[in-house]
């Protein structure tokens, strides 16, 4: 699998599409370089733009910054047999109004909603536990609010996976890997893989150092990436999936039965070491 184009999307869990437009960014990478980085679109318009990019270039890999599934124990409790059934549940719910997400009962929680309840199973999916083992710090999909939460953006994002599937995009790991394909990503993990010398920094200092390390690969977009965490995450998602698949090959199809409802994060080929093309002595180009 050798994509000609990679797209990275930094998503939003804002209650309204208008509010989401201030946070959602889309990045496009070709030949290992960032060629576009745009914000200002709501969720629906962003996915419209992604579908246009895929139709224009079918050999496209799309990285989306939200969870594609839920913990297997929750799916079993609710009778969801596949991720598609979870997505349709989320589509029906979000279509009912902007308050539906934060009105979800236990086991969902978050500041301003309810304290974390006693759960019937692990708050994290197996793929998030694997990311933790590699040094990442993912949030549970059950947490709907608060800094670093991913639950709201996941529930707003799942219906868009149905739209992408209808447009002919394979959704990994549920479909047989083929292009065009969408994958779940954790941008911060890709950022530390692509720019290892910046790994000890945080916030704006990290973004500035990572942008400097990426060099010509982000030429023309460095200012936007440094100024905005959302833009930065979209950019490293696009560059990360581009390099990960080119260096490690096509991701394997889902193998564990739980992946039918949990999904899997596409991680760097070796999530604990610098990207091979970014180790010291290889220059600043990508």
How would you sum up this structure in a few lines?
This protein has 286 residues and is α/β, with parallel strands linked by helices. The protein has helices spanning 17-20, 43-56, 72-78, 83-95, 126-133, 151-166, 187-194, 203-214, 222-227, 229-248, 259-262; strands at residues 5-10, 25-30, 33-39, 60-64, 170-171, 181-184. The protein is globular and about 50 Å long.
Fold and architecture overview:
Helix content is 39%, strand content 10%. It is α/β, with parallel strands linked by helices. It has 11 helices and 6 strands. Strand 2 and strand 3 (33-39) form a beta hairpin. Residues 272-286 have low confidence and may be disordered. Helix 2 packs parallel to helix 6, helix 4 crosses helix 6 and helix 7 crosses helix 10. Strands 3-2-1-4-6-5 form a 6-stranded mixed β-sheet. The protein is globular, with a radius of gyration of 18 Å. It has one domain (5-278).
- Domains (count): 1
Largest sheet: 6 strands, mixed
Helix coverage percent of residues? 25-40%
Structural class: alpha/beta
Question: Strand order across the biggest sheet?
Answer: 3-2-1-4-6-5
Average pLDDT metric:
92
From the alpha carbons, calculate the radius of gyration and give it in angstroms: 18 Å
| Structural shape | globular
Low-confidence parts, pLDDT < 50 over ≥5 residues?
272-286
Number of strands: 6
The fraction of residues assigned to DSSP E strands is 5-15%
Q: Distance between the terminal alpha carbons, to the nearest Å?
A: 19 Å
Sketch the topology as an H/E string, one letter per element.
EHEEHEHHHHEEHHHHH
């Amino acid at each position: 699998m050798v994509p000609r184009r990679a797209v990275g999307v930094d998503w939003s869990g804002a209650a309204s599409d208008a509010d989401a437009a201030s946070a959602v960014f889309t990045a496009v990478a070709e030949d290992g370089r960032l060629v576009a980085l745009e914000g200002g679109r709501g969720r629906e318009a962003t996915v419209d733009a992604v579908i246009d990019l895929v139709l224009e270039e079918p050999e496209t890999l799309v990285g989306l910054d939200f969870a594609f599934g839920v913990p297997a124990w929750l799916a079993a409790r609710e009778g969801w047999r596949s991720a598609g059934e979870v997505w349709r549940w989320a589509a029906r719910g979000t279509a009912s109004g902007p308050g539906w997400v934060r009105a979800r009962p236990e086991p969902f929680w978050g500041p301003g909603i309810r304290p974390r309840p006693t759960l019937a199973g692990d708050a994290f999916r197996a793929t998030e536990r694997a990311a933790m083992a590699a040094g990442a710090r993912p949030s549970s999909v059950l947490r709907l609010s608060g800094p670093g939460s991913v639950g709201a953006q996941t529930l707003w994002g799942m219906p868009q996976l149905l739209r992408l599937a209808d447009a002919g995009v394979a959704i990994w790991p549920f479909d047989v890997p083929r292009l065009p394909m969408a994958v779940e990503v954790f941008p911060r993990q890709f950022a530390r893989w692509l720019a290892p010398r910046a790994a000890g920094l945080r916030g704006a200092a990290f973004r500035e150092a990572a942008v400097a390390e990426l060099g010509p690969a982000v030429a023309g977009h460095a200012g936007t990436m440094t100024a905005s965490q959302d833009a930065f995450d979209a950019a490293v998602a696009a560059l990360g999936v581009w390099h990960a698949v080119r260096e490690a090959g096509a991701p394997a199809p889902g193998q564990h039965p739980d992946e039918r409802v949990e999904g899997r994060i596409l991680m760097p080929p070796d999530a604990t070491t610098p990207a091979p093309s970014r180790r010291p002595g290889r220059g600043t180009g990508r």
